[in-house]
Amino acid sequence: MTRIIVISDTHTDSIDSLSDKLVDELSDADLIIHAGDFTGKQLLDDLRKIGKFRGVYGNIDGPDIRRELPEIDTIEAGGFRIGVNHPAEGGPPTNIEQRIRRKFQNVQAIVHGHSHRTKNAVKEGVLWFNPGSATGKFPALKKSYGILTVDSEIRGDLLDL
Predict the structure, then answer these.
(1) Distances (CA, A) of 70 to 25, 30, 66, 126, 155
(2) Averaged confidence pLDDT in the chain
(3) Does CATH number 3.60.21.10 belong to domain 2-160?
(4) Most exposed of 40, 45, 79, 125 (fewest Cβ within 10 Å)?
(5) Model confidence over 61-116: pLDDT tens digits?
(6) Phi-psi bin for 91: left (phi > 0), alpha (psi -120 to 50), beta?
């Protein structure tokens, strides 16, 4: 079994802004995914020190983060393919799934940020997963993160902080 901790839209400069509970979860993860809008490069560096890390840049991230991370990533985990994207073009979240979906082929899950709103739903055989904002930045309704569990299937769980 693979346990992936997923965060997004942190909009902060360092791991010190994240809750102790979340930092503990990140430390125990098999993989950490950040779905964009770090805002500060120190947070990227901090997450890389904790454990195995993958991430994409978001529309708010500056050149220091964009130099080090891709806009789009596809991760293999337990025989499943997970697409990760944060629409770097920004824009309203109203048609976000259409904009993101066309970026991926043959994936079983799509992780994304940008809306700051949680999502855990299967649509047309693909798990759509958005952990919300780990720091509760507007327009998030709360602080949250997600866990993807990969074994014979891929499942998502959303947790409030």
Answers:
(1) 24, 21, 7, 22, 25
(2) 94
(3) yes
(4) 125
(5) 999 999 999 999 999 999 999 999 998 787 777 788 888 999 999 999 999 999 89
(6) left
Average pLDDT over residues 131-157: 93
Among 53, 93, 89, residue whose Cα is nearest residue 73: 53
Residue extents of the structural domains in the chain: 2-160
Burial of 144 (0-12, 13-18, 19+ CB in 10 A): buried
* CA 13 – CA 26 distance, rounded (Å): 17
What's the whole-model pTM score?
Answer: 0.95
3-state secondary structure of 46: helix
Say if residues 154 and 127 touch (Cβ distance below 8 Å): yes
